[in-house]
Amino acid sequence: MNDLARGHSTATLSEAAGFAIALSPELRPLWTGARLCGPAFTVQGAGGDNLALHHAVLQAPAGAVLVADHGGAPFGHWGEVLTVAALHRGLTGLLIDGGVRDAAELQELGFPVFSRNNSILGTRKDFQGVFDGPVTVGGVTIRPGDLVVGDIDGVVALPLSGVHAILDRADARVAKEKELITLIRQGHNTLDLYGLGG
Ligand SMILES: O=C([O-])CC(=O)C(=O)O
Ligand SMILES: [Mg+2]
Fold it and tell me: CB within 6 Å of ligand 1 — which residues?
Protein backbone atom coordinates (compact mmCIF):
# COMPACT_ATOMS: atom_id res chain seq x y z
CA MET A 1 0.00 0.00 0.00
CA ASN A 2 1.33 3.42 -0.96
CA ASP A 3 0.54 5.17 2.31
CA LEU A 4 2.29 8.53 2.66
CA ALA A 5 2.22 8.13 6.46
CA ARG A 6 3.83 4.65 6.23
CA GLY A 7 0.63 3.17 7.66
CA HIS A 8 1.10 4.80 11.06
CA SER A 9 -1.90 5.40 13.29
CA THR A 10 -2.99 8.89 14.27
CA ALA A 11 -2.10 8.14 17.90
CA THR A 12 1.45 7.14 16.98
CA LEU A 13 1.87 10.19 14.75
CA SER A 14 0.56 12.50 17.47
CA GLU A 15 3.03 11.10 20.01
CA ALA A 16 5.89 11.17 17.50
CA ALA A 17 5.32 14.81 16.56
CA GLY A 18 6.15 16.16 20.01
CA PHE A 19 3.84 19.13 19.40
CA ALA A 20 0.11 19.60 18.83
CA ILE A 21 -0.98 18.05 15.54
CA ALA A 22 -4.23 16.42 16.73
CA LEU A 23 -7.52 17.96 15.63
CA SER A 24 -10.49 18.21 17.96
CA PRO A 25 -11.86 14.74 18.81
CA GLU A 26 -15.20 16.01 17.50
CA LEU A 27 -13.89 15.42 13.96
CA ARG A 28 -14.86 11.79 13.31
CA PRO A 29 -14.86 9.25 10.46
CA LEU A 30 -18.24 9.10 8.73
CA TRP A 31 -17.98 5.32 8.46
CA THR A 32 -16.10 2.68 10.43
CA GLY A 33 -12.81 1.61 8.90
CA ALA A 34 -12.19 4.79 6.91
CA ARG A 35 -8.53 5.80 6.64
CA LEU A 36 -7.64 9.22 5.30
CA CYS A 37 -4.09 9.93 4.13
CA GLY A 38 -2.90 12.55 1.68
CA PRO A 39 -1.69 16.09 1.07
CA ALA A 40 -4.18 18.83 1.84
CA PHE A 41 -5.90 20.94 -0.78
CA THR A 42 -7.45 23.67 1.36
CA VAL A 43 -10.92 25.12 0.94
CA GLN A 44 -12.42 28.05 2.80
CA GLY A 45 -16.15 27.58 2.44
CA ALA A 46 -19.21 28.97 4.19
CA GLY A 47 -21.49 27.25 6.69
CA GLY A 48 -24.64 25.90 5.03
CA ASP A 49 -23.27 26.59 1.52
CA ASN A 50 -21.36 24.05 -0.58
CA LEU A 51 -20.60 25.78 -3.90
CA ALA A 52 -16.93 25.96 -2.81
CA LEU A 53 -16.77 22.16 -2.68
CA HIS A 54 -18.20 21.79 -6.19
CA HIS A 55 -15.37 24.07 -7.40
CA ALA A 56 -12.72 22.41 -5.22
CA VAL A 57 -13.37 18.99 -6.75
CA LEU A 58 -12.37 20.48 -10.11
CA GLN A 59 -9.38 22.48 -8.84
CA ALA A 60 -7.64 20.03 -6.51
CA PRO A 61 -4.86 17.83 -7.96
CA ALA A 62 -5.24 14.05 -8.11
CA GLY A 63 -4.14 12.44 -4.86
CA ALA A 64 -5.20 15.39 -2.71
CA VAL A 65 -7.41 15.33 0.36
CA LEU A 66 -9.89 18.21 0.38
CA VAL A 67 -9.58 20.05 3.70
CA ALA A 68 -12.54 22.36 4.09
CA ASP A 69 -13.61 24.86 6.73
CA HIS A 70 -17.39 25.31 6.76
CA GLY A 71 -17.52 26.76 10.25
CA GLY A 72 -18.69 23.51 11.82
CA ALA A 73 -22.18 24.04 10.38
CA PRO A 74 -24.55 21.04 10.66
CA PHE A 75 -25.59 20.77 6.99
CA GLY A 76 -25.05 18.09 4.36
CA HIS A 77 -22.26 19.94 2.54
CA TRP A 78 -21.09 16.75 0.82
CA GLY A 79 -22.77 13.57 -0.35
CA GLU A 80 -22.87 10.83 -2.92
CA VAL A 81 -22.84 13.08 -6.00
CA LEU A 82 -19.73 15.02 -4.95
CA THR A 83 -18.06 11.77 -3.90
CA VAL A 84 -18.50 10.24 -7.34
CA ALA A 85 -17.13 13.46 -8.85
CA ALA A 86 -14.15 13.40 -6.46
CA LEU A 87 -13.35 9.76 -7.22
CA HIS A 88 -13.50 10.54 -10.93
CA ARG A 89 -10.84 13.24 -10.37
CA GLY A 90 -8.61 10.94 -8.31
CA LEU A 91 -9.10 12.74 -5.00
CA THR A 92 -8.36 10.62 -1.95
CA GLY A 93 -10.72 11.95 0.73
CA LEU A 94 -12.42 14.80 2.52
CA LEU A 95 -11.81 16.42 5.89
CA ILE A 96 -14.46 19.02 6.69
CA ASP A 97 -15.25 21.19 9.68
CA GLY A 98 -18.98 20.90 9.07
CA GLY A 99 -21.57 18.30 8.19
CA VAL A 100 -21.92 15.71 5.43
CA ARG A 101 -24.61 13.21 4.38
CA ASP A 102 -25.10 9.93 2.49
CA ALA A 103 -22.95 7.95 4.94
CA ALA A 104 -24.09 4.55 3.64
CA GLU A 105 -23.35 5.44 0.01
CA LEU A 106 -19.93 6.88 0.89
CA GLN A 107 -19.03 3.72 2.78
CA GLU A 108 -20.11 1.63 -0.19
CA LEU A 109 -17.93 3.80 -2.46
CA GLY A 110 -15.01 3.44 -0.01
CA PHE A 111 -14.38 7.20 0.04
CA PRO A 112 -12.97 8.35 3.40
CA VAL A 113 -14.71 11.38 4.90
CA PHE A 114 -13.98 12.88 8.31
CA SER A 115 -16.44 15.50 9.51
CA ARG A 116 -17.76 17.33 12.55
CA ASN A 117 -21.26 16.01 12.03
CA ASN A 118 -23.58 13.96 9.85
CA SER A 119 -26.52 16.05 8.68
CA ILE A 120 -29.34 15.54 6.22
CA LEU A 121 -29.97 19.25 5.60
CA GLY A 122 -29.33 20.62 2.10
CA THR A 123 -27.16 23.65 1.38
CA ARG A 124 -27.19 26.91 -0.55
CA LYS A 125 -24.86 27.23 -3.54
CA ASP A 126 -23.78 30.89 -3.44
CA PHE A 127 -20.23 31.24 -2.05
CA GLN A 128 -17.49 30.37 -4.54
CA GLY A 129 -14.90 29.66 -1.87
CA VAL A 130 -11.25 30.58 -1.38
CA PHE A 131 -8.58 27.96 -2.15
CA ASP A 132 -4.97 27.20 -1.30
CA GLY A 133 -4.64 29.28 1.86
CA PRO A 134 -4.45 28.31 5.52
CA VAL A 135 -7.73 26.99 6.98
CA THR A 136 -8.75 26.09 10.51
CA VAL A 137 -10.31 22.65 10.89
CA GLY A 138 -10.99 21.08 14.27
CA GLY A 139 -9.08 23.91 15.94
CA VAL A 140 -5.85 23.32 13.99
CA THR A 141 -4.45 25.50 11.19
CA ILE A 142 -3.83 23.38 8.09
CA ARG A 143 -1.82 24.65 5.11
CA PRO A 144 -1.79 23.43 1.51
CA GLY A 145 0.37 20.31 1.23
CA ASP A 146 0.26 19.39 4.92
CA LEU A 147 -0.14 15.63 5.35
CA VAL A 148 -3.58 14.83 6.74
CA VAL A 149 -4.14 11.43 8.34
CA GLY A 150 -7.40 10.11 9.80
CA ASP A 151 -8.40 6.80 11.34
CA ILE A 152 -10.78 5.41 13.96
CA ASP A 153 -9.12 7.51 16.70
CA GLY A 154 -9.36 10.88 14.96
CA VAL A 155 -7.35 13.16 12.69
CA VAL A 156 -3.83 14.65 12.69
CA ALA A 157 -2.29 17.20 10.33
CA LEU A 158 1.50 16.99 9.86
CA PRO A 159 3.14 20.24 8.73
CA LEU A 160 4.80 19.56 5.38
CA SER A 161 8.28 20.58 6.60
CA GLY A 162 8.09 18.15 9.53
CA VAL A 163 6.68 15.07 7.83
CA HIS A 164 9.92 13.12 7.40
CA ALA A 165 11.16 13.64 10.95
CA ILE A 166 7.78 12.72 12.42
CA LEU A 167 7.55 9.55 10.33
CA ASP A 168 11.06 8.48 11.34
CA ARG A 169 10.23 9.00 15.02
CA ALA A 170 6.97 7.09 14.48
CA ASP A 171 8.92 4.14 13.01
CA ALA A 172 11.18 4.11 16.08
CA ARG A 173 8.22 4.38 18.44
CA VAL A 174 6.41 1.43 16.86
CA ALA A 175 9.57 -0.70 17.04
CA LYS A 176 9.99 0.19 20.73
CA GLU A 177 6.34 -0.60 21.52
CA LYS A 178 6.65 -3.98 19.76
CA GLU A 179 9.54 -4.81 22.10
CA LEU A 180 7.53 -3.71 25.14
CA ILE A 181 4.53 -5.80 24.09
CA THR A 182 6.78 -8.85 23.69
CA LEU A 183 8.11 -8.28 27.21
CA ILE A 184 4.58 -7.84 28.65
CA ARG A 185 3.56 -11.15 27.07
CA GLN A 186 6.57 -12.69 28.83
CA GLY A 187 5.25 -11.46 32.19
CA HIS A 188 6.90 -8.06 32.68
CA ASN A 189 4.70 -5.25 33.96
CA THR A 190 4.23 -1.75 32.61
CA LEU A 191 5.33 0.00 35.82
CA ASP A 192 8.75 -1.63 35.58
CA LEU A 193 9.03 -1.27 31.81
CA TYR A 194 8.17 2.43 31.87
CA GLY A 195 10.18 3.04 35.03
CA LEU A 196 7.06 4.12 36.93
CA GLY A 197 7.68 2.01 40.03
CA GLY A 198 8.03 3.60 43.50
O1 LIG B 1 -26.09 19.21 -2.35
C2 LIG B 1 -24.95 18.81 -2.68
O3 LIG B 1 -24.30 19.35 -3.59
C4 LIG B 1 -24.32 17.71 -1.88
C5 LIG B 1 -24.97 16.40 -2.14
O6 LIG B 1 -26.12 16.18 -1.80
C7 LIG B 1 -24.22 15.37 -2.86
O8 LIG B 1 -23.02 15.53 -3.13
O9 LIG B 1 -24.83 14.32 -3.17
MG1 LIG C 1 -27.05 14.46 -2.81
Answer: 50, 76, 78-82, 102, 122-123
The answer to whether residue 40 is domain-embedded is yes
- CATH code for position 84: 3.50.30.40
Substitution site in 102, 111, 125, 127 for ligand 1 pocket (most atoms within 8 Å of beta carbon): 102
Domains in the chain: how many in total? 1
Instruction: Indicate whether this model's pTM tops 0.95.
Output: yes
**Each residue of 173-185: pLDDT tens digit?**
999 999 999 999 9
CA distances to 36, 72, 183, 190 from 197, rounded to whole Å, are 39, 44, 16, 9
**Quick one: pLDDT band at residue 198, thresholds 50, 70, 90?**
low
State yes or no: ipTM above 0.95. yes
Q: What is the pLDDT of residue 2?
A: 80
Residue 142: strand pairing partners: 135
For 119, residues 6+ apart whose C-beta sits below 8 A from its C-beta are 74, 75, 76, 99, 100, 101
Instruction: Indicate which ligand has the atom closest to the C-alpha of 124.
Output: 1
